[in-house]
Amino acid sequence: MHGDSGSSDATPLPGPGDGPLTSTRTALQSACPTVLVGSDGYPVALCTPILGQVPTVHLLDPATGRSLTSLKIAKGSLLGGVYAYLDAQDRLVAVDGERPLPRIGHRRTAGGGWELYVARSLSLRDAVPEGDAVTGPAATRGGRTTPAPRPSRPSPPPTA
């Protein structure tokens, strides 16, 4: 598990424990680099489908892994918008290809189903130049969000 924006694979959070584990395959026809479980026990996955390659958020059934609902977000660069985290309200925080920073929540509908919705969004257009991408946001210890940009142009060499 990446515990920081440097992808150190270290985190102070507890893992799955040392008891027996079972797993189930969920056929979303996607690459899902980010799968997070909130305090309510519902997994939220940020996936890129093989066909179309438009990033899609899925709310998964914790018992079966089946997608309960999904929400497409704008496609960006190859690695743009594929990493995310859950904030203190269990909302998925990601950056999409149009450079907003949405906080995507989930809730029950009046009919008893589920929906994913954009609870808040912040434009990063002033912070991320056109043509650049954000690989993923990172939360600071104070709960603020810092984008991890990936420039589309090489940086100039350092000067002495």
Give your account of this protein's structure.
- This protein is an all-beta fold and 160 residues long.
- It has no helices and ten strands.
- The protein has strands at residues 30-37, 43-49, 56-60, 67-72, 85-86, 92-93, 100-108, 114-123, 133-139, 145-150.
- The strands form three sheets. A four-stranded antiparallel sheet has the order 1-2-3-4, with no helix packed on it. A four-stranded antiparallel sheet has the order 5-6-7-8, with no helix packed on it. A two-stranded antiparallel sheet has the order 9-10.
- It is globular, with a radius of gyration of 17 Å.
Detail the topology: elements first, then pairings.
Elements: E1 30-37, E2 43-49, E3 56-60, E4 67-72, E5 85-86, E6 92-93, E7 100-108, E8 114-123, E9 133-139, E10 145-150
Antiparallel strand pairs: 1-2, 2-3, 3-4, 5-6, 6-7, 7-8, 9-10
